[in-house]
Write a structure and sequence with these properties.
By secondary structure, the protein is an alpha+beta fold. α9 runs parallel beside α11. The protein has two domains: 222 residues, Enolpyruvate transferase domain (UDP-n-acetylglucosamine1-carboxyvinyl-transferase, Chain); 214 residues, UDP-n-acetylglucosamine1-carboxyvinyl-transferase, Chain, CATH 3.65.10. α3 links the parallel β6 and β7. A four-stranded mixed sheet has the order 2-15-17-16. Strands 4-5-3-14 form a four-stranded mixed sheet, with helices on one face. A four-stranded mixed sheet has the order 6-7-9-8. It is 29% helix and 25% strand. It starts with 11 loop residues before the first strand and ends with a helix. The structure holds shikimate-3-phosphate. Shikimate-3-phosphate binds next to α5. This is 3-phosphoshikimate 1-carboxyvinyltransferase. Belongs to the EPSP synthase family.
């Protein structure tokens, strides 16, 4: 009897297909899913979650919260029940916390552990083990926690939580919702008031959800747009019922896929459009993308709509770097749209893309070039000269070789949709990472092109 090797890469060639037609519902928002489990695990009583993203990243968070004493159970498709232990009552896990590929799990949980009497190690895959953790180690050390990281402030690392921790006032040196959230979560079990000063706004799910769970959290916006977020510690969280809206970062692949595939008309239902997340829709519209918002409403305290998207003649633009934080995970998909647009697209201010699941500027530049696009890689962005039509591997510098995805789900999905607009298709070296954030991506793509 032969068994497939579970460690083997899973390559796949994504071929051009007919127009994409139909309605889809993308899975729940990854950021909100992580936070639902973490905050549910800190509330006393039962939190019920529907629409939870059942991707590997969120499952890593669920396993970690179980290891620290919470009961986290699946009750149906996307339906989960979390019985929390209460702020301050997390338990010492028996072994290292395996974070897999998930930066969000790692950084937010480092914050939680930092103000509990817990010593634990965090481990992760090869991609996560290259990512910088110094950005959370620094403020959490100021709060009294201590760290034994690997070289360069990376995983594997051990955290010794401080109890009681010391409240700090911290100005974020990088626009990062993960760093902000790590400090706010540490602040939950810290006596007094913890303050985060955010000069450039980033996704605000932590603030919205902490408030929803009953934390005493306040946001002041100064005249220059700087946000001053305060949280009163030793909080008591009340369990909630949460309906997680669809993930705009997952919707992004189908938005771009429909825009670049002639004859397409797709409705993506229930997409979260929180203004700190929705930058891509505006940028694609500026490029000439036909995207309509239908049935605008609120789900789980977040603005949501169904998006109707039709194939469009896209044109290159200069993307305002100020929108970057509101679409930070969507640039790989945008680069694909730009590679097929008519004219030049210039992006800048994207240094943060170099420390995501892969170096997304370098990896997308290489990948799109191999698929037949014209790309100039700069330090903080890409300049893309679109073909105005389709990608032709073999010209001008493309060689049609398999795209190296470097354990990065968003590279794999972006290059999969590039395949739709490529004469000979695009071979992706490994589709397994897609399961971290969007396990049903390939099935959905097949259904729309059937
Ligand atoms: C996330 C924040 C972003 C984003 C990540 C999820 C979050 O990271 O890239 O996928 O849930 O807070 P940064 O805050 O580091 O930019």
């Amino acid at each position: 009897m032969s068994h497939a090797d579970p460690t083997a890469k899973r390559p796949r060639r994504f071929l051009p297909a007919g127009p994409l037609k139909g309605r889809i519902r993308v899975p729940g928002d990854k950021s909100i899913s992580h936070r639902s489990i973490m905050l549910g695990a800190l509330a006393v009583g039962e939190t019920r979650v529907t629409g939870l993203l059942e991707g590997e990243d969120v499952l890593a968070t669920a396993a970690a919260m179980r290891a620290m004493g919470a009961t986290v159970e699946r009750t149906g498709e996307g339906a989960w029940s979390v019985h929390g232990v209460g702020v301050g009552a997390l338990l010492q896990p028996a072994g290292p916390l395996d974070m897999g590929n998930s930066g969000t799990s790692t950084r937010l949980l480092m914050g939680l552990v930092a103000s509990h009497p817990i010593t634990t190690s965090f481990v992760g895959d090869a991609s996560l083990s290259k990512r910088p953790m110094g950005r959370v180690i620094e403020p959490l050390s100021q709060m009294g926690a201590s760290f034994e990281p690997s070289e360069g402030g990376r995983l594997p690392l051990t955290v010794h939580g401080a109890c009681p921790a010391v409240p700090i006032s911290y100005r974020l040196p990088v626009a990062s919702a993960q760093v902000k959230s790590a400090i706010l979560l540490a602040g939950l079990n810290t006596p007094g008031i913890t303050t985060v000063i955010e000069p450039v706004p980033t996704r605000d799910h932590s603030e919205r959800m902490l408030r929803g769970f009953g934390a005493d959290l306040n946001v002041d916006i100064e005249a220059n747009g700087t946000r001053v977020i305060t949280i009163r510690g030793e909080a008591e969280l009340k369990p909630q019922t949460i309906d997680v809206p669809g993930d705009p970062s997952s919707a992004a692949f189908f938005l771009v896929a429909a825009l670049i595939t002639p004859g397409s008309e797709v409705v993506i239902e229930n997409v979260g459009l929180n203004p700190t997340r929705a930058g891509l829709v505006g940028v694609l519209r500026q490029m000439g993308g036909r995207i309509e918002e239908l049935n605008a409403r609120e789900v789980g305290g977040e603005p949501v709509a169904d998006l109707l998207v039709k194939h469009s003649a896209l044109k290159g633009i200069e993307v305002d770097p100020a929108v970057a934080p509101s679409m930070i995970d969507e640039f790989p998909a945008l680069f694909v749209a730009a590679a097929l647009a008519d004219g030049v697209t210039v992006t800048s201010g994207l240094d943060e893309l170099r420390v995501k699941e892969s170096d997304r500027l370098a990896v997308m530049a290489t990948a799109l070039t191999a698929a037949g696009a014209r790309i100039e890689e700069r330090e903080d962005g890409l300049v893309i000269t679109g073909t105005g039509g389709e990608l032709l591997p073999g010209t001008p510098k493309g060689n049609g070789e398999a795209i190296a995805t470097h354990l990065d789900h968003r590279i794999a999905m972006s290059m999969a949709i590039a395949g739709l607009a490529s004469r000979e298709g695009v071979e992706v070296d490994d589709t397994r990472p897609i399961a971290t954030s969007f396990p049903v991506f390939e099935a959905m793509l097949e259904r729309l092109s059937a």
